[in-house]
Known about the structure:
globular; mainly alpha; two-stranded antiparallel ribbon
Amino acid sequence: MMVTLDGTIVAVANPAIQKDLGASLSDVQWITNGYLLALAVSLITAGKLGDRFGHRQTFLLGIVGFAGASAAIGLSSSVEFLIGFRVAQGLFGALLMPAALGLLRATFPAEKLNMAIGIWGMVIGASTAGGPIVGGLLVEHVSWQSVFFVNVPVGVVALVFGLVILLDHRAENAPRSFDVPGVVLLSLGMFSLVWALIKASDWGWGDSRTVLFLLGSAACFVSFAVWETKAGEPLIPLGMFRSLPLSAGTVLMVLMAFAFMGGLFFVTFYLQNVHGMSPVDSGLHLLPLTGMMIVGSPLAGAAITAVGPRIPLVAGMAATAAACFGLSRLTPGTGTLEMSLWFCLLGVGLAPVMVGATEVIVGNAPLELSGVAGGLQQAAMQVGGSLGTAVLGAVMARTVGDSFGDNWRAAELPPLAPEQQALVEKGVQVGIAPVPQGAPQPVADAITKVAHDTFVSGMSTAFTVAGVVAVLAAVVACFTKRGENAAAGAGAAHV
């Protein structure tokens, strides 16, 4: 809950942080990007640490470190310290996520594993929903520091319960060494890839820096694959990917996150900048989505236990595709009821995919690699989300660039200089209407209509692309099946 909450709660606090600490726009971006980069780069390595030293130990260490870093952020008096502790928060968060899945896998027998993962998915849905709402309330009524301090009592409770309840499960053939060259190559590859995706919207996809980081990422991944065939105890035994269901589950997680996170990125701008909602109100309007994920995840776990993952996964991605195509039909004047129906359908579709794809990946991996599999699942989600945000952001920018000038001229508004138009288009890409101060009401209305119509046109195209990706994911889901190694979980040794 802490890790997911901090992925969304901080966006609400950023304006207050910027004002209080005098941070630049670049600094504010690093508050989010530093966390996401540290998390994405470290997930698989953190999972391996759990396989090597025990998931209970890494989970408890992650709790202490995450809560401690959160407290340090709240006490920070400069943006440099804040960013540094955000990176630390991401590193400790990477210890928590794969360890949680490793503990579930080792604790529950196959017939109960899906329900356990369903409850895990329910918690993720609840914390995703709560992030903007809790963050908005805390920033508005307490302070931006309280957004981070809230993790401290949660961490204390989790630590106490973890010490009392969690057992140390370790497989008999758990790894005994650590693949340092593999860790370095994979970390460099993940960093270069995620960094290129984060910066592509600013630099441009054809910019030499973007291309250089993408090529560097590819070189690191190829070198990593070659090294893994020679290492005595590789970080990720490539034989794992001989399992077609595990590989399909990983690809499915990337595609699901692409469609979900990439599309949802624009929904927040649509609610706040087009409909004029506050962060708290926009969070409340997304409750049908996250509410259905909360309710649907345990139900999906029960369904997957009964019939296997394939049918729920295909149906889930088909519902996700239908929701994306439905959301592509939103207009600046769309009412709450219609939005809520599409958000509900999206939540219904995502719930079985979150649970089923996780079970397919973790359940098809050997028990001694359950931490690596958990890290792989989370890394696939992070990469898919970053890729979706970057690609759909490029789609939005292209659509706005192609149509804004024509729409502006058609409204018979005063012409803009090229530099001024480029600046205005940047704002329109996030739904901001560039109304000059003191503009007559008819002119202000015309500018607002052009800006919002252009933004919604771009969002429509982005959701159409997301829907096509979701259809592709439904095809990939046909290659999944129940985890072959899931039954090994309950038989793990108790140390």
